[in-house]
Automatic annotation (TrEMBL):
SMART domains: CLECT (SM00034)
Domain C-type lectin: 32-165
Signal peptide: 1-19
Domain of life of the native organism: Eukaryota
PANTHER family listed in its UniProt record: MANNOSE, PHOSPHOLIPASE, LECTIN RECEPTOR RELATED
CDD domains hit by this protein: CLECT
Name of this protein: C-type lectin domain-containing protein
SUPFAM superfamilies on file: C-type lectin-like (SSF56436)
Keywords per UniProt: Disulfide bond, Signal
Pfam families with a match to the protein in the record: Lectin_C
Length: 177
């Protein structure tokens, strides 16, 4: 019985010593407010990044395309993208052409954007002025460098980078284990 109490005490002390907001993200992922983010260096269409079973990049990493729920989260992602692409012009990439898929669309009902993972309507929005405009049947959401990393709607079949999001406590879970 004494050993059981000792073990319980060790576990409690270890938990108390764990800093709040500990980064439980897998290697290469970024931590912010209980979520882990992966900024995809490869490009994929929106369905490839989120839905396509054969190439669902975010699903394969036990995550989904990002749902931006607060201004703080939006600002964090913008600052990360600015850092990632601060030397884009040095490598011949126009910062204005950099864009990343988000996890929302209005495929079901035109003009009603929802987050796919939670199946919830947007409660926070950071659209670029004049957006969304549904030009040429634009149904999927992106962050675009040309719009200062504010949101834009775009046709879903254009390859872009993407941002995957996982809860910090889920980020290290391996699918199937």
């Amino acid at each position: 019985m004494t050993q059981l109490y000792f073990l319980l005490l060790v576990v409690l002390l270890a938990e108390q010593g764990r800093p709040q907001g500990t980064n439980n993200c897998r290697t290469g992922w970024k931590f912010f407010q209980e979520s882990c983010y992966h900024f995809g260096s490869q490009k994929a269409t929106w369905p490839e990044a989120e839905w396509n079973v054969l190439q669902a990049y975010c699903w394969s990493m036990n995550s989904r395309l990002v749902e931006i729920e607060t201004e703080a989260e939006s600002n964090y992602l913008e600052s990360q993208l600015r850092t990632i692409h601060q030397h884009a012009s040095d490598s011949g990439v126009d910062q204005n052409e950099v864009s990343y898929w988000l996890g929302g669309n209005d495929i079901e009902i035109e003009g009603v954007f929802k987050w796919v993972k939670s199946d919830q309507p947007l409660t926070y929005a950071d659209w670029s002025p004049g957006q969304p405009d549904d030009a040429n049947g634009e149904d999927c959401m992106e962050l675009r460098g040309a719009f200062q990393y504010h949101w834009n709607d775009l046709p879903c079949n254009i390859p872009h980078h993407f941002i995957c999001e996982a809860a910090a406590f889920e980020a290290n879970t391996i699918i199937g284990k």
